[in-house]
Amino acid sequence: TRSTRPQRLLNAVRKHATRGDPQSVISAIDHFCRHSEWAMNIGDEKGSILDSVVSELNPEKVLELGTYCGYSTVRIARLLPPGARLITLEFNADYAAIARQVIALAGLEDRVQLVEGASEDWIPRMKEHFGIETFDFVFLDHWKDRYLPDTKLMEDCGLLRKGTVLLADNVICPGVPDYLQYVRNSLSYKSCYFKSHLEYTKAEDGLEKSVFLG
Ligand code: SAM
Ligand code: MG
Questions:
Q1: 135-140 and 160-168 as β-strands: parallel, antiparallel, unpaired?
Q2: Is 75 close to ligand 1, i.e. is its CB under 6 Å away?
Q3: In this predicted model, what pLDDT tens digit does every residue of 68-81 receive, in sequence order?
Q4: pTM for the full model?
Q5: Which in 125, 148, 166, 189 has the greatest CB count within 10 A?
């Protein structure tokens, strides 16, 4: 049977990246997606905005919604301080299996916990199952109709504290109008837009950074 795109992406990483070197994993994936096959990673251009938000925050407890092949997981995890933890959620078992290998190749498996399952099922279990009090940083990049309900769910489950930063990808393309309307108008958030382009294209897209004010 034919291979899948995530399998071909993993093969490109195996061929071109250096084990234990996260930057080489990132570069191998970006090269594959620019020159062979487009894939839904945050990509290099928006990725550098993600990098600066993570570096400025220096978060210890991080949640990522939507792992896919682990590209953004590797981007975030490589910048975390020692002892920090990144929990990433992925409900597609085939993608999760690829991501595990990409994360291991980058040498970051000690900081990353990949959890297989749906965000709406796992968010309410973060406290009891992982001993999480609150997250310092949340990266939202799963299906777009889940950004708003999962944000409200994180609020209800007490996973956000004063100062928690939410960073949402693809707020223009494909777009998340209900989520933007919420974080931009709620008095519980201070929100701003970072203009950029859809991964590996020239189409406008961007990231929305929203600080929870409690
Ligand atoms: N963050 C990744 C990156 O930039 O490298 C890309 C993630 S991709 C855009 C979105 C992923 O979220 C898909 O792999 C999809 O299977 C997963 N997903 C979508 N809805 C989900 C949900 N409710 N719970 C868990 N995973 C979900
Ligand atoms: Mg995205």
A1: parallel
A2: no
A3: 999 999 999 999 99
A4: 0.98
A5: 166
